[in-house]
Amino acid sequence: MSKKIVTTLFLGFLFINIWAQTTPEITIKIKGATRQYALLAYYYGDKQYIKDSAKVATDGTVVFKADTAYTAGIYLVVYTPKNDFFEFMIDTDNQRFAIETQAENPVKFAKIKNSPANTLFFGYLNFLEKKRAESKAYQTKQEDFAEGWPDSAAVYKRKLELLDKEVTAYQDKIRKEQPKSFLGAMLNGNWKPDIPKAPKGITDTSSYMFYTYRAHYWDRYPFFDTRLVTSPVLHTKLIDYLDNITVQQPDSIIASIKFICSKLKPNTSAYKYTVITLINKYAKDKRVGFDAVYVFMAQEYYIKGKANWVDTETLEKITSRVNALEPLLLGKTAPALNLPDTTGAYKALLSTR
């Protein structure tokens, strides 16, 4: 065999090996599941979409395969026809793994093979479930002792506070020890600062607390991490900040949008999702004066060419709507309008007082 043929064969086997390692193959086995088909769905913001479907074997096993890598994110395996489901992670670095569990409690009984991301994720979910059960028991006790037994009620109130600290400590441990993990990114994305106490000498304590909280709201958010688009994290953070942490005036909302978009790298999936979500949100806003937010979004990100995904027809429609709305915004001088007076002579409306 010639050296050239040997080299060709070697490269061929190398290509096959690399392809085998990188193409997705996700095996899910749920004991007790008797469904015929399963769906693989994924999050895109606050919505879920179907990615794939596959037949379920008699032992409850279903395998999802693809020729190209899945987008990293939070996925769901959904068993028809009752649509029972559970969530799991697909990360960028490993998309060939297995999850075996039971139908009655898939999170509790999950056994993960070859997926550190899901080992961490399911461990966290089980920890939360355990603490949730403890919290419910403490809350019941606190309510039982609320009338007539204040000292006992205070004991369970303190237990609830310690439980919250324990959960926070567990989350901080993951953030510190697994900063590049998908779960670490999600925890940083969901993080919110503590409500600050106003220092002595501050008279308007509520304003101080609000603006300080808002100033630190995005401190830990990993703007560079596009995995949060295919999870509920980015959408939840955006809407909470704009609806609850921003003063509900068009100028304030525009300033918040500018801040968020300035943190996102242009032409990434996070940037695209943010711009599309917010222009659609404010296109539907019926509050008086809030059409200014839509006009800003359209002019700043679409008409200026910062939305490279938009097609010509859509851009023309957006531009046409902006041209119609912009002269009518609050604070603008009304367009010239000539109307006949009682003698039939036409006069400019702006000339009348």
Describe this structure in words.
By secondary structure, the protein is α+β, with helices and mostly antiparallel strands. It has 10 helices and 10 strands. A 4-stranded mixed beta sheet has the order 4-1-7-8, covered by helices on one side. Helix 3 crosses helix 4 (182-190), helix 7 (250-263) runs parallel beside helix 9 and helix 9 (291-303) packs across helix 10 (312-325). The longest helix has 30 residues, at 116-145. Residues 1-20 have low confidence and may be disordered.
Q: Summarize the helix and strand pattern as letters.
A: HEEEEEEEEHHHHHHHHHEE
In DSSP terms (H or I, runs of 4 or more residues), the helix count works out at 10
Helix content: 40-55%
Mind telling me the C-alpha Rg?
Answer: 28 Å
User: Which regions are unreliable across 5 or more consecutive residues at pLDDT < 50?
Assistant: 1-20
What overall form do the CA principal axes indicate? globular
Kindly report the spatial arrangement of strands forming the biggest sheet: 4-1-7-8
Mean pLDDT: 89
Total number of beta strands: 10
Largest sheet: 4 strands, mixed
Structure keywords:
four-stranded mixed β-sheet; alpha+beta; 47% helix; disordered N terminus; 10 strands; 353 residues; 10 helices; four-stranded antiparallel β-sheet
